[in-house]
Amino acid sequence: xxxxxxxxTGAASGIGQAVCERLAAEGAVLALVDRDQERLAGVAxxxxxxxxxxxxxxxxxxxxxxxxxxxxRAVAALGGLRGVVTCAGIFExxxxxxxxxxxxxxxxxxxxxxxxxxxxxAKYALPHLMHAAAEAGGSSSIATIGSTAGLRGHGxxxxxxxxxxxxxxxxxxxxxxxxxxxxxxxxxxPGFTDTPMTGGSGRDPVMLRALRRGIPLRRxxxxxxxxxxxxxxxxxxxxxxxxxxxxxxxGATVT
Length: 255
Prior knowledge:
Structural class: alpha/beta
Helix content: 40-55%
Distance between the termini: 35 Å
Low-confidence stretches: none
Number of domains: 1
CATH topology: Rossmann fold
CATH architecture: 3-Layer(aba) Sandwich
Largest sheet: 7 strands, parallel
Strand order of the largest sheet: 3-2-1-4-5-6-7
Order of helices and strands: EHEHEHEHEHHEHHE
């Protein structure tokens, strides 16, 4: 990944932060995008202290103008774009109930960030990714972040489940439409991962025992493990992988 410019959304915490750290360790040049300016500044400062060339951009992926502007700024500052990882995502507590009890505002808000946000980032990044692929004579890459909820559902989260199912389908569409233009698109579907979005529930002994029973590896994922897969999918080592939906879930979806 040395010298390759990659834009990461949701870069201020969780999987997004881990992706930035892994890509930086592999020598990538980074555009960090997140709506949480304070956390974003902290991640950017740490990466800068390690010598990583980067730009940090505060933006809300659910807002078209924010996304368009963020990508324009990233390309102008870093000289192009070779990869994208769409980690920005939310889960609303009010989305936990039965679908009939979830209000429309909650449902729409989750879709706006998780699905519309992924679409907007891809939409405005694709021209730059195609250009970079043509210039390099190889390929550019998008790694979307879905969820095992989008593969089989978890029994809760109408908005979250629908949004992640949408990300999976969108990924397949992009892989078909842009594969011959030098852009590979793949989707990572994490299982339960220990991030701020899961609220530390994976550290509660009772919850952890229940979670482990459904995972053949008998443990939950760490963000760094998802980041390693994202880094691989963006690299030339994955040059013939396109349109794949990869569950990083310790085997949970085989049960």
